[in-house]
Amino acid sequence: MKLSQKDVLGMKEMTHDDINLVLDTAESFKEISTRPIKKVPTLRGKTLINFFVEASTRTRTSFEIAGKRLSADTINISATTSSLIKGETLIDTAKTLESMRPDIIVLRHSAAGSPHLLAKLLSASIINAGDGAHEHPTQALLDMLTMKERKGRLEGLKVAIVGDISHSRVARSNIYGLIKMGASVALAGPATMMPRYVERLGVSIHINMEEAIADADVIMMLRIQMERQDESLFPSLREYSHCYGLNGKRIELASKDVIIMHPGPINRGVEIAPEVAYGPYSVILDQVSNGVAVRMALLYLLAGGGEA
Amino acid sequence: MKLSQKDVLGMKEMTHDDINLVLDTAESFKEISTRPIKKVPTLRGKTLINFFVEASTRTRTSFEIAGKRLSADTINISATTSSLIKGETLIDTAKTLESMRPDIIVLRHSAAGSPHLLAKLLSASIINAGDGAHEHPTQALLDMLTMKERKGRLEGLKVAIVGDISHSRVARSNIYGLIKMGASVALAGPATMMPRYVERLGVSIHINMEEAIADADVIMMLRIQMERQDESLFPSLREYSHCYGLNGKRIELASKDVIIMHPGPINRGVEIAPEVAYGPYSVILDQVSNGVAVRMALLYLLAGGGEA
Amino acid sequence: MKLSQKDVLGMKEMTHDDINLVLDTAESFKEISTRPIKKVPTLRGKTLINFFVEASTRTRTSFEIAGKRLSADTINISATTSSLIKGETLIDTAKTLESMRPDIIVLRHSAAGSPHLLAKLLSASIINAGDGAHEHPTQALLDMLTMKERKGRLEGLKVAIVGDISHSRVARSNIYGLIKMGASVALAGPATMMPRYVERLGVSIHINMEEAIADADVIMMLRIQMERQDESLFPSLREYSHCYGLNGKRIELASKDVIIMHPGPINRGVEIAPEVAYGPYSVILDQVSNGVAVRMALLYLLAGGGEA
Q1: Which ipTM score applies to this complex?
Q2: Terminal alpha carbon distance of chain C
């Protein structure tokens, strides 16, 4: 089994069949992480480079654990220690890395489109681990795996995504993926945080959060980027929390067996109340576990699938 | 063989029998690091996360080498690249890490008590690699291993600990451990560096260094935290060195076969003269070797002992 | 097979026979990195410490990949997280590291001579990965491997090295190595960038770049250290580029089958035009691939050669 493409650049590019293949493969890989010996030799002798030009603990750690549980040689490169600080272009660095013959390069970069650029220039597989405010496909895949596990299906699911949609690569990737898989998506957030023309993607748009989450099967809360607060996209954190924070009362509007998701890290008491984040509807920690499984699946399908 | 507790939080919590078990296991693991092939498959498929919110090369490296020599998958997370800088709480980060199913999380953190907090919330084993000025149990265990090797016993040993006792997690952990194992402990340091009520732990207290080290079997010098110097706990480094620095002359006061210890990194010529640090009585480098052995023992007893 | 010395400190110290042994061994290791399973068990249970007190992505990554493809346990230590920032001396840190029983320590350090100091004090093998403006022997070895592959020989080759010779450890190491292997070396650069008495090493010196590269078999361009620009070693980047930049027109002066080398990272459009860097004469990416092979060879010859 192989993906139809060399790279995982975004949910926009990924086909319906490829998404199903990843989710099914991930499901079968989940079991490995529950064994006493959490390791298989599948990718022995393969080289995985985690190239993080933008910092991220959880995503990097998830990829590193995924690689090591598959026995791949796993190399971390972070921007602060990178020669990028010497002014080298991303292209030059990537060509240099490729000359060391990695099988897969996982790239996180603040510039949208950078993984696509590398994918064209290199023969190694590129996995986009987040490119600016553009896409974060492995997050969407782990989110969809979590929904499918809990709900048994993606088709026909009603998913509400709440928060700063326009700056969220998580939202964008989920929108592409969910629409492709037949779910319906309702977006909620202040008008200043809603991208233009997003309705063309087949989603509904709501300024009123209550509207979006009514009867939802899934509520996905987005992280407020505290560091962007000076842009004044909303009057105050308190105001934001009042209008778009998820609390126990708002959950009652949703489907009785709604699941609550958040890509993390959470801002306790801002976009989500602590008792909700770890309450009975929350699947936030499942998302993290599924992150390792989805990444194992992708590494396997890109670097090892052809030989198994 | 297993420890009686899931975690290694401090010498205060560790039982006499557990201490003996760790020291005996460490003794048998020392040999592995002297083989041409310094690796055993004992922890293959186990995941160890070194989560260092406070920087430390030697402790992190020691744990990383210990993990790799036991074939564990070893992941490093440091604070500077951590999502903690995004304002996430330690608890949220820890729950996220646990969802990736590590077997052991080694935590260094500037806040006293943080490993205890995680130990309660997580099912993974937590090893305290230093929490603020509170405890540093693996350092005390390697110190005790070194004493036991050199002296054949801990019971009845006369140990002097000299320096900034009140800010030293190394001192605190050694006091708890040594008293528990039947050694007698004499503390020396300026009154400004002596914690209140410390005599209740069963130690003797001395402003005069000569008094404390008289006939000592072991002299343990503590590192002066140069970065805390502006607190004016003593008039000057020169003054400190004059009153509490260990030099060849002072060593003559101790037992003829005294051993000199220091947790490192040393301030040459401040708390210890260079010729003493690497002189015939010094066991400073043995401490480092024993650090790897003690950490291998702990990893084995926490993650692998039940299956062997 | 073993090297005649415990350490790899510089090309000045390396014998003609040792250079041949490294190049031949590297040639045989190249094939491993082209296999589907890029890994051999040769150094299983050996410990390699990459101790980088000066940042470097490409050299560190190259050593890390080399170590992992040989199955060595590979530990990275970088200066920013190192206890060196606590004021410990390099010697104390190195002795501490040695007490953890590594087989090889790879050192990059801004102080010339630091690897030589460690080599005297430690029994582990030291590999110099760049010491100040002094030497960078693994770079010279990978350069020589690349020349030998392309030209079939080193003896009698005409090599031009162009740029800031006096600050370049790459230049220095190549000069020592190439002269030893019977190549002839022509240096070109502004007078302010030419070390004194360098002609005593048996090289020719040219202010005029055209003179140096005439009929050259190899042109090695050095990186201009943009960060040193305020030293005013030349009037402007544009002026430098005009006099010493390599472009298509200048290449015509060289031998018809000249190869173009650069240690990277390149300053596009300063010392080398982009179309030259990735043009038909360029072997820059071969240098990177050969870097992994040369480092695998060195690790093997230092830590594993005696047992094979």
Answers
A1: 0.93
A2: 8
